[in-house]
Design brief:
Two copies of one chain form a homodimer. Chain A is 61% helix and 3% strand. Chain A is an all-alpha fold and 141 residues long. The longest helix of chain A is centred in the middle third of the chain and has 34 residues. The first copy, chain A, binds a DNA duplex (30 and 30 nucleotides) through helix 2.
DNA sequence: CTTGACGTTACAGTAACTGGAAGGCCTATA
DNA sequence: TATAGGCCTTCCAGTTACTGTAACGTCAAG
């Protein structure tokens, strides 16, 4: 099958399939007589693997590691689990950071009346930094 | 003061100050006789503003918008609040996405014994997709 | 007078694509 | 048979927000 069909079946856009090939994440595709890339079900399965791993937030680099483990039938499941657990920790760090930003922004927007008047505690805080407003309620969680 | 001191006071690295200047986020700095960039307290305050906005996750583009509002004394606080609220929604979307990834990964790692044996439900799932394992428990929240 | 810290510019590289140009191939229809 | 369209090819540029490096100028201290 051509790249378009492989893309539709695997969920990876043609452009990205070529990109993954160009960076060596997946091997070079076989070619039909006309020079078009030719894929079979095995290739589609592999592309689907890449797609699912990427959508779980694994970096392209990580996916490379997962692919070698996937293709190595003697691999230890502990290696895979380790990668996945590290990735969970990454996610937890990102979530914590985002939630911290969110708390600050929520606090700021709650204190901003948000009408036509120019007074705006959001800008005031950004200009001065929270340290310059010691009267602010720093609610504990 | 030189760029190094302005950097230390504002929390923005010298390299990033030059970068922000190069993309026009901040205006070109005055120059001392020797060609060095020269900053005063007003500049430092502005850099600090940029720094705090960036650390709250506003894009450089957003910061540009906030800066114009900051420097426009007739602006409406509603404009600022709108930007901030949109940003909170962005954050909420990102957190939801990350938490969805985390749930899937946690489910996978819980089912992976993670020892020297090659069997690994993580790789199996990535290879086949969750749809091919209809016996999996899809816990409600 | 040299050393080291600091400053300057300019260019390349990062992650992971995305868009676009310019052209080749394939099939169907008028 | 001509042509229209849709898919395929390669290659290059742009995106975001920096970061690294090179090659150079300047300044203060010992």
């Amino acid at each position: 099958m051509n790249i378009g069909e492989a893309a539709a079946l695997s969920g990876v856009a043609p452009k990205n399939i070529r990109y993954y090939e160009s960076i060596g994440l997946i091997g070079p595709a076989k070619r039909a007589a006309n020079g078009y890339r030719a894929y079979d079900e095995t290739d589609v399965r592999l592309l689907g693997f890449v797609n699912r791993a990427r959508s779980l937030g694994f970096s392209v680099n990580d996916v490379g590691g997962l692919l070698s483990l996937y293709q190595d039938h003697g691999r230890a499941s502990g290696d895979v689990k380790k990668l996945a657990l590290e990735h969970i920790e990454d996610i937890d760090r990102k979530v914590a950071e985002l939630q911290s930003m969110r708390r600050t922004l929520k606090d700021l927007t709650d204190r901003c009346h948000g009408d036509d008047r120019p007074d705006c505690p959001i800008l005031d805080d950004l200009a001065a930094g929270p340290d310059d407003r010691p009267d602010t309620v720093q609610a504990a969680e």
